[in-house]
Amino acid sequence: MAYLTLTDISKQFGETFAVQDFNLDVEKGEFVSFLGPSGCGKTTTLRMVAGFELPTGGQITINGADITNKAPNQRNVGMVFQAYALFPNMSVSQNIGFGLRIRKEPESAIKERVEEMIRLIHLEKHIDKYPYQLSGGQQQRVSLARALANRPQVLLLDEPLSALDAKIRVSLRSEIRAIQKTLGITAIFVTHDQEEALSISDRIVVMNEGRIEQVGTPFQIYNFPETQFVANFVGSLNTATAEIADPEQGLLHMDGVQLSTAEKLIGLQKGDKVRIAIRPERFSFASEQKKANVVDCTVENITFLGSVVRIHLLIGNTKFHMDTFNYPSLELPKIGDKTQVTCSLRAVMILGQA
Amino acid sequence: MSNNSDVVASGEYHPKPPFRRKLSFAWAGVLPFLIFAFLFLGLPSFTLFIGGFQDSEGHFTLANIYGLFTPSILSAYWVTIRISFATALIGGLFGFFLAYALVLGGVPSWVRSALMTFSGVASNFAGVPLAQAFIFTLGRVGILTVFLRELLNIDLYEQGFSLYSFWGLTITYLYFQLPLMVLVITPALEGLKKEWREAAEILGATPGQYWWHVGIPVLMPSLLGSMILLFGNSFGAYATALSLTGGLINLVTILIGSQIRGDVLHNPNLGYALAFGMVVVMAVTMSAYYLLRRRSERWLRK
Amino acid sequence: MKKNLIWSWFWIILSLLYFFVPLILTFVFSLQTLKDQFSFISYQRVFEDRGFIRSLIFSTEIGIVTIFLSLALMIPTVYWVRLKAPRIRPVIEFISLLPFVIPAIVLVFGLIRVFSGGLLPLTNTHLGTNFLLVAAYVVIGFPYLYRSIDAGMGAIDVVTLTEAAQSLGANWFTIMFRVIIPNLRAAIFSATFLTLAIVMGEFTVATFLVGLKSFGPYLWQVNQNRAYEGSALVIVSFLITWAFMGLIVLVGRGAGASDAAGPR
Fold this sequence. Notes:
Chain A is an alpha+beta fold. Chain A contains eight helices and 20 strands.
């Protein structure tokens, strides 16, 4: 049995379901992200694991023990909040030691554990400061240490980075991941930022309107989205409408441009219209050896995005983006040039009938 | 703006006058306000202050200050302080409970906004009308007094209660103290973040432990500060007390009132010292309020 | 959770009883002028009393002059400080909050001592005395007015607004009356009504300076002699306070009303 299980979890507010049919098994030491737009039920699910909300149906277990209806203070889970939620009247060390003090552990043990935690988050110099004297990033690290000091069975992180500046967000996210790996703690991380989820997680649960859309590794989620929602929400995407020319061969026509997919188009007829999607980075400039889709296009605009250059293409009558790495010897076409780009058969995803 | 580096380069360096000119220019715009405040706020206060240290011939003396420590005046201060303390404490506690009920008690929001609005009115409904309303209610022939006596056989006045004494004054003052407390403590209660409670809970704390370790310590500066404000608020009250007791209670404000009307102390300068003493008490109170408020704002900043 | 809710209602109902019983009983009292029947005769007598109308008009006039003087004094000052002299802001704030420290009875004591003789014997004439009354009310209103004007100007970022207006070629008069003041409407209204509510019933300063001419002392006088009409006046006075505070709520949240302390 998995370490943390959520079985058929649902949460109903009046008539509406905030969460429905939620099933998830999390292994010990795993880092799982809940990803989705606001209002998709990810925070509600997390709060049910924490005990702040009680599910209207289903069961939650940790390490085999049913905790579905236990009070939050009986669960031994740790939580990091979006707005830090440090106690303003306590110093850094008092904040970190709070949970241990509540458990009435001996002062010497508390002191030792607090110092250990302080070292873990590299705030040795700030041990006696108060929250208002710390920056947002520092406060969130203290909040993490406070949650970990109790040796919780599961660590819950509720959008812990979204109140921070972009730079700190990135550095703290790798710090959180490193600490989680060191301690081998099971963690659930709620975010609406797909890049964050992709970079930090072992597995991602993509949620929409209270339901799970897809569960998978970042690689699976990004490269093999199972639903249109996942494809749209994770990564950037070119979408277009195409007409099926040959379902057996996976052949498509789009404004007179021919495209092929890797799969057979089962259950579809010639002449059916489908939505297709291609990620911008799957395109490259055509060269002779590529045996894939090769299409004619016009370069409409070129935007530098730092490490990536985005080229705006017109293929047939549809606008596409193509992303290519930026390196000094890169030879870029000029605006208005007619050229050819290529993408593999597997890059052409079918999102369903149009 | 003068360009200092040029001046230095050309060898003739003046200690820069522009700063001074800029400063006096800054003051020029607020001159009407300053003059007005000086004439009608500064001058009157200052005159009383000076007067408190003068004898009838205008020579410097500390006799008036010593005079404040005579039994009758001391007792006036003492009664005033006791009433202010009682109304601050009771009004503070009850006001806090009421505000708590409104903010965190889970009552419908219209109840809350209705009572907040009413608090705004009630905290300004003071003075003569307030005193009279209580006289009609709890006075010797007040409707409630009569009702209790005739129908329930409880004679308040027989049992030692009098609206015109300490407790009567306290009950009446609470009418503006309690809503004032609600108004000033509500922002602090709203500043208590839901996440603090949740964080404490998930770290194993019971609701009681949360209040003991977090809620009450965080609110303490606001609570104390608000009660101090209430203290000052009732310390300077004159109209309510006069109207309720007809001037028969020995409060500092009542004493000053009688002094203005007809030099009951037989020493004008002692009167000034008396008034000045009030300002000192108020200044201490308000400084404490201000400091505590700054502290709580630092904690409760959103 | 349930227990919490029960306690909440307990406190709310207890407070409502405390707040409304005196008002209701005063109202009941005011209806009992005639033996054995309820009537509004006391109200009729109140409204027919020439002193009532006269003192009400007098206090309203004083209130209106107070408001105009306060605004004329405070708006340019706060504006100037924000625009040109942010460094002296603490000084202005300190002075504006000083009246909290000086009880009305002390203020009027000092005013009488300074202005009943000497260089500016204001209390020798009716006009001078009335002006002194207005001045006292302006001073008492400083803390509320300063706060609501300052908060109002903070909310609209007057500096940027002024620069924008200047860059469009507006002169100072236009900036003040077409840009700044219209944007301060809510703050000005709430300060105005609060000042009116305070001035209308004010007793302490009025009784020593002008006596029965103004509404507060008049109300007191009536209550000393005629209980039924007195109780009717109390109800009327409460309704007046209600009306002004209701107006504050109507024009938006009363920025200055939070630390309110009226005539005690």
